Each structure stands twice: as structure tokens, then as C-alpha cells.
Amino acid sequence: MKKLAVFSFVLLAVVVCYQSGTALAKHYEEEAAKKPLMSYLKGHETGKAEYMKAAFHTEGKLMYMRDGKFTTIEFADYIGRMRGKPAADEADRKRYIESVDVSGDAAVGKIILDYPGARFVDYMTLLKIDGEWKIVNKAFYIERKKTDKE
Q: Which end of the chain is more exposed for a tag (fewer CB within 10 A), N or C?
């Protein structure tokens, strides 16, 4: 009976340690996958292209619907639009990572950009390439807001 109790205790300890280790590894990967997403947000905040370059893979694309038509932009072209300085209404802009879901070396991040004239919902596909997470695809939805000028 004593051996059974000791065996049960050891087995329970192994299971708890394994689950803790798995949860810790998952948390670590989620935090690592957030790094390019945070760089992307910093790029929007500052207007500086270097943050976007750190976030995006060189071969990725941005995809969205414009006037009912499927539209794509190469990341290099998108990054080239950065102005190098914050937007005039930066103080009124809010942006945050709403969620990150990681499965192995693939992840999806959802980002909200809440600006005075529009609310963007960005869906980022990320891959862990050579040990580093990169955004390889961005699809987004835009919801225009009525402004005082309209």
C-alpha cells in the first residue's frame, strides 16, 4: 500500500511538472510571436519603416477588399509608405494586440487599430522562420467612422 501511495505521488508530480512545462513553453512562444506584432504597432506609432521591416518577412503580402475587389500589396511597398514620423492625430489613436494563437511554428495574431476616422481589424499570419517569428501575411478589415466634418 505504501509503495502504491509513493508511486501515485511520483506519477502525479511528473504529470504536474509536464503540464507546467508545456504551459510555460506555450506562454514563451506566445510572447515570442508577439514580438513582431509589437514592432508592427511601434511602426504605426512612430511612422518609422525600420519597425515594420523587423516585423514583416521580406516575401509577405497585405491583402484586403477595396470597393468589393480583392487587393494585394507587397510588404516592401507597404513599408515604403511609412512617413518617418508619427501621424498628426497620434494622441487620438489607439492600437493593441487583441489575441495571439500559436500552434507549433505557425501563429495568428489579431490587432486592433482604432483611429479617429476608421477602425482596422488586422489578422496577421506568422511563421517561426530560422528561430524567429515573422509576419508573412496581413489581411484586414476597415470600418470607416463618421467624423465631425461629415
A: N
